[in-house]
């Protein structure tokens, strides 16, 4: 495949149709494999928060330990914009492929290290300090992972099919979350609560090491994205991508940030925090909840390409609007249904409240990629998405837990999700429809 196409062709249309589809499939697989690592780690940490809290923040107050471990969880999100700026700049100057290999290795190694950490019982204050440092490193590499993967797929997909192929990036999100729930569930079943508390919590973190080896092998086999190859052939890379993004694409930065905020609230409250809601607050059995979340995540993964393809046909705005409206309408009544202390009803409610997730996740990432030109796409996406992720993902589990503690109202996380969905809907009002446009 030539890296210098005929000048008359748009960037996204250069390869022959058959070659383009093969390239897009490889890109989609590589994106999903790496993104699964990122969300596996974040999922494991979220699912085991109530278990590992006393390990690193011992004390008589279980709620305080949980808040402390969630604060460390949120700290990783503070590093995501930094990672997005640094890795995005390298991705826009050197290429997508090499940086995506760095991010997946960095995320996987850091996750494995959590499983090797000493606890506060044996190491005292150094234990939570080391955990915090590792979480910051994870956040740095995560800042360039999912957005870089989404940019890579968008630049490798044929025009008019970016929604379909782009949906496989969040398929990795769902698979990573499902693997996290499955590994946590199997560990708790095989080891039991006592052994899980003593040392079994380490296993899910250590499992990231073989996963990163497989993901790295997949990413090593792919070529540089089509659009970036063409850009390199005819243009000099930007010297200061972030400055250019802020100066020339400020409106896109704002819209993507607000949409990413709503998307992240949907994932971290609508899926990951529901684990804490069901187990810590409603007292459902942890192992059973792990299986529910694993099933929900896998089910949602199968729906993502469907909604991605639908957005290619009817447009990104309409499909995204349907997803955010679904969050706003469904979350509160489904949380009430979960509180009936019936595991069957809780399972049904969890399936329903998760229905908007594949819509928003699958259509969001290709939409973000289409808001920035190839010249600064990696930086623009990484910076904007990660700013939205700080508030929508890093802070919300902590805030939700704190609000429940302050007010006694178990529905507070649902109100946060409704608010996030409304913010995203407002951002859609001025969004340009890009489903059928060629990438610039």
UniProtKB/TrEMBL annotation:
InterPro entries: H+-coupled_symporters, MFS, MFS_dom, MFS_sugar_transport-like, MFS_trans_sf. Residues 27-432 form the Major facilitator superfamily (MFS) profile domain. It is a multi-pass membrane protein. PANTHER family: ALPHA-KETOGLUTARATE PERMEASE (PTHR43528). The chain crosses the membrane at residues 63-87, 99-119, 125-153, 165-193, 199-218, 256-277, 289-307, 319-337, 343-360, 381-404, 410-431. This is Proline/betaine transporter. It comes from the Bacteria.
